[in-house]
Every structure is written in C-alpha cells, then in structure tokens.
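Researcher: We're reviewing a set of sequences before deciding which ones to prioritize for further study. For each one, I'd like a predicted 3D structure that I can look through quickly. This is FecR domain-containing protein. If possible, include the structure in token form so it fits the rest of the review sheet.
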Amino acid sequence: MKERDIDEVIISILKEHGTEEEYTVLNKWLAESDDHLQTFEHLKLIWKEKSARPKVPNADQLADKIWAKATNQYVLREDKPKHKNRWKRYLGVAAAISALVIISILLVRNEFYIQNDSTYTSRIIERSTLAGQKLRITLPDSSIVWINSESSIKYSEHFTAKDRIVELKGEAYFKVKKDPARTFEVVAGDLTVKALGTSFNVNAFNSEKKIKVALVEGKVGIVNKEALTVLLNAGELAVYNTTQKVFRKARTSLEDEVSWKDGRMVFRHADFDAVIAQLERWYGVKFFYDEKAKPDWDFTANFTDSNLENVLKVIGFGEGFQFKIDGDSVTLYF
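Model: Here's the predicted structure for FecR domain-containing protein, in token form for your review sheet.
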C-alpha cells in the first residue's frame, strides 16, 4: 500500500472502512509506543463513544486539532538552506509532541469525568436461554454470539475504549469482530479467554467440572486465576480441569465442539451421564431412571434436527433400553 499518513488510516478504521493493510499499518504504529496507544484510545473516545460526545465540548474540533498537531507537515521552500529546514522540522515535531501531551492530559481529565459522572452509566445486559432453547445475538461491537441451551452471558451495553468483556455461564460460540486496539475477553469461571478477531467455542457448564475452549480460527490466550496461560492455534482444544487447576491441549475435530450451533448433536465416546445431560439441555426435558441400574456407555453418534423420540429410539436400540415420554419427563427402563 502507498505510504499514507497515520491520521488517514485511523479515520478509515474508526469509520469501519479499514482494509487489512490499514489494520497492519495501525498495529505497527500502536506497537511503537504506549503514547500512540493512549492517543488512539482517547481519539476513539471522542469520535466513537456516542454517549461521551455531549460531555466533551467541541469534540470534533478537538479531534481535528489533535491530528493537525500530531501529523502537521511543514512546507519547506527549496531556496532555504537545508540545515534551517531540518531545524524547522525538528521544532515542528517538538511542537506537535508538546501539543499531544497537553491535549492528552485534558482528554484524561474529560475521560475521568465521564466515567465518574453519576449520570453516565453503562447498563449491564444479560441474555440467557432455557433448556431446549438456543439464541443468536449481536454484541455492541458487532461481534456475534450463539448461546447454547441453559447458558447465559453478561456484558456492558457500551464496551469501553480499552477492552470488550463478556461473562459466560454454560456454552457459547463467539465470532469476534476484529479490533486491533481492544482485546475481546470471555470470563468463564476460573478462566479468561483473550482474543482480538477470531472464532471460538467455550463450554463452561458448572456441572461438568471442566471448561473446554475450541478455536476455529485465529489465536487466543487462556489464563486462569493462578496466571497459568495456554495459547491456542486454529483447530486446537484446551480442556481445563477446574478441580486440579491444570490444562490439557490437543488437536480436535471442530465439528464435535461447535456443531451444536448449526442444529447438529454430536456424541463421541460419551458415557451415560454425558449423554443424558446433553439430551436434557437440548430438548428441555428431565430424565428419570434407576440409579442402581445405570449402564456404562461408550456412545458415538450424530443427529441433525432430530426429535427426541427418534433420538431415543436410535440410542435405545444400540444400548438396550425402553423409554416413555410424558410431557417434559422421560423415563428409561433398562
């Protein structure tokens, strides 16, 4: 890409018109110094955060002033000595830096005021599903989430200028919109999954005493409360034992982990308890059976948009049981 001023690149990205090349330029610029990152965050605050704009006087003019100072190019006349031109450029850069420092301080004060103003509150939104339900929603940053049965997520109505945080109970599939300046974090029990722009599935049902993270594309980092970190590449699965506080990482069939969002139920060497738990969540029913007669299963099968009766017929034929469905109750006879 032809070299362009960083202000043009940032404006394009803030307007959500950014290309892959522009994101690369921005990432390189942000990595050069913490000042660049802080300036970018402040600029997003006054340009993108709609709720902040009324509280920042002359927001558009202030934003223009920042970038006019930061990227000002002085026209140098060829008939002047080169050393004078060089000193003029140095003075111009110094002036721009000084202006940025002063304006950044003012912005920090404005940001502090905004965040501490009792009239400025970001509502917490919670979306949940019952047994037998699934839900697809769009987050404030345009990321998409599929929520599995008996699951819930919580998030702020307006993500901050620094991060995007979602709390999860149960299972959800995330397709995260790319935003190089803000990480996307999913907090699930003891774990936090961190990403920028990627797709992954998190399975964190409390009853299963383990948390599974399957990465479809991109890269993610997973951190527990003891600061133990695991990095995943596409096609990898991390299983975290919530009792022993340890990770196990392996390659996986992504279909096994994420097919639920497309209406496919997959069992792979599942024991009796895992099959029953899945069926209860999927169909919104409760199973009853003789605990003493509970069998030892190693069940593998795929079902696509199948009703409960047909699924039980298939499983019952292979595992040798009869069943009776009465409303939302299912009784098994071994």
